[in-house]
């Protein structure tokens, strides 16, 4: 197995997600932030490229407005930011849509992207699914991402339900899911993370359902 050529993608680790209705609730935002900074430190030590992504909804928007303090990266991210990091501002859920990220990754000869940041239920899942058609392997760190409570005309789901469900979904097809510690070990060893697939996930799911 060849060694992955990774880049760490920090997805929208912006002040917007640390208070108010968009505050990340599972895992608790303070815990996920700690793991995000640990991933940054591990990536820096290993010399892999880092990308800092910020979402904008425009100057008139009530959230993700680039003229407000909430648009800024969290201070613990900004304090670590280095000149060689790639900065990306996006308008869509996927980090690839409408940005120059893909050609930059190709220039860096990156074949595997590791996603940390927010939210699991929007930009993380959208970016992971988009990576598949771009022939880029995706990794998601389950304890360095997070979700919010969501409710609409279709129903209600807690942040924990949303996050754990989407991690299971991602591991079944779109991404290799790991903890930050597991990823750091794989990074140091130059190994790929183990990734599930839909057939084996379906068979195991059927087996567990039959036991209940």
How many strands, what sense, and barrel or not for the largest sheet? 6 strands, parallel
Number of structurally distinct domains:
1
Strand content: 15-25%
**How many beta-strand runs?**
8
Describe the fold and architecture.
The structure is a single chain. By secondary structure, this protein is α/β, with parallel strands linked by helices. It has a single domain (6-211), classed as Isochorismatase-like (Rossmann fold, 3-Layer(aba) Sandwich). It contains seven helices and eight strands; from the N terminus they run βαβαβαβαβββαβαα. Strand 4, helix 4 (120-133) and strand 5 (137-146) form a beta-alpha-beta unit. Helix 1 runs parallel beside helix 6 and helix 4 (120-133) runs parallel beside helix 5 (159-174). It is globular. The mean pLDDT is 96.
Q: Which labels suit this protein?
A:
single chain; 212 residues; alpha/beta; Rossmann fold; six-stranded parallel β-sheet; two-stranded antiparallel ribbon; 7 helices; 8 strands; 39% helix; globular
Brief rundown of the structure:
The chain has 212 residues and is α/β, with parallel strands linked by helices. 39% of the residues lie in helices and 20% in strands. Helix 1 packs parallel to helix 6.
Please outline the helices and strands:
Layout: E1 6-11, H1 29-46, E2 50-55, H2 75-78, E3 86-90, H3 101-107, E4 112-118, H4 120-133, E5 137-146, E6 150-152, E7 155-157, H5 159-174, E8 176-178, H6 180-189, H7 198-211
Parallel strand pairs: 1-2, 1-4, 2-3, 4-5, 5-8
Antiparallel strand pairs: 6-7
Helix pairs in contact: 1-6, 4-5
